[in-house]
Amino acid sequence: MHIKSILYQMNIYHPSRLVPEYAARCGDRIAMRYRDYTDGRWKGISWKELNDRIDHLCAALLNFGIKEQEKVGIFSQNMPECIVSEFSIFSLRAVSVPMYATSTTSQIEYIVADAGIRMIFVGEQYQYDRAFEAVSHGECGLKQIVIFDTNVRLQKNDDQSIYFKDFVHKGMLLNLQDSVEAKRSKCRDEDLANILYTSGTTGEPKGVQLLHSNYQEIIRVMDIKLLHLFDKNEVSMCFLPLTYIFEKAWSLYSLSRLIRVDINLKPLDIQRSLKEVRPTIMCNVPRFWEKVYSGIMEKIEAMPALAQKWVSHAVKLGKRYNLDYVRLDLKPPFWLSLRYNLYRVSLFTILKKAVGLENGKLFPVSGAKLSDDILIFMRSVGIPICYGYGLTETTATVASFDEKHFSLGSVGSFIDKLQVRIDDNGEILLKGETITPGYYNKPEINAKAFTEDGFFRTGDMGYINKEGHLVLTERLKDLFKTSNGKYIAPQSIEAVLCNDKYIDMVAVIGDQRKFVSALIVPAYEELKSLAEKLGIPDLDADKLEDVLKDERIYAFFENRIRMLQKNMAGYEQIRRFVLLPKPFSVADGELTNTLKMKRNVIADHYKDEIEKMYL
Q: Residue 551: which residues within 8 A CB-CB, separation 6 or more?
């Protein structure tokens, strides 16, 4: 049966019943794929096979004694077993608590203790080691570790761990199908589905509670925006961590609409995976598109001058075609269409094929500010980036571009039936069926997070433009004031500077200071090429710090920054900066797991460098 004929006949299923329904209706259809690293090939899992795996795991979980609404941890990088485990937890009316694969032992201990977790699924060696260390401390309450990867080496004194395949095998031997179905039949929309711990840019983690009804509502509203775009051949690339609400909600939506989900297991393999899968859909963060843009620009700059002019002309024409006409649902003039199609065949399609994006129908992007230059370029060459805005607390999407009539500079139109209010200080307030009921075990924080009439305080500032689209201005807690009384929105400045191929990361400084400064992480590969051009030999890790202090390198970056910020107000412009020898990282506590900067941590780590800029 054609996918759309199925979709328009069905309801939006409770997540616990989604897989059994599709297993019965189209069991042989492939639900998801993953790369098997034993032979490098992509292996498919049908809806029937997925359903069988879930039922077997459910039996094993029941045998262990998992209770209704009990919290079960999943601590792993992206793997098919993560999806199997979560649907199994849902089926038993229990609660899934995902944890980022890079989490530390102390973070795991905090989450396990806060949520009262007895059982945790882990992925590979790193996750097992952290979980076992937490168990060894004897205070967190963990009783069972279930390990996905059979290559994990167990500790000699470990009597609390079992490999996933052995755990599931126990379930296969048990005749508990009636008990599983009985549990599934008791699942309710208002049941707690997930607790998603946000690492946050300040303070201890907060557990965002999401109900099954939150997920059902996000599926309904995304149908309104997107369902008409899809057919039976869609493929969604799962690249972001499934712990991240953006990927979690997107992959659930894709599966709920019979869109095959291909799981990229190792982040460093994404370029290879894109070229092998050539997805039609993929959600991602601005950082990914910054890298794609930088790579394309590097190739263009390496072309002869005449070829560069040809590409520049093609992109300008593409912008006129896609943004001045197609975006506004206007018919392009005949000669514009003719020239655009020539460039599409001779340049744009070749460019997209080089990175595996030529089949793209929709590439949602959110999580941070996306440069207008990057958005316009991608849209001009026919890469359908769909900019949006959302939070864990809003079950991902709050607003996103529509297929037509989206406003450049905005994050698009609001989802259906969401109540929106802009507070007196410019904060965006939200109320609706996709909003969290609150943070787990945090009554005092919940009291501050919601207004008296039930609106959630997002912490983001913005306004609604004349088209009714949301425009973000700054994260409320990131906004700062210089000692001269000028308000600075650091994310906007950082986004402009990160357009440059020589700049990888930027942290803008200036709270209660005389002027704005910056900590800049250079793009080290580009820096190496620059050093060679300037006659600076032997650039390696040992000498990097000395090279960054070289007057020629500093002058080069000074000139680049001057050009990049020429359209900024004088008080916004960076007056001084420091080039850093290593990037900000999750491991050092400078970035959250979703790669947002922890500004207070960065400021503390580089307090000496910052003070020197203001001497």
A: none
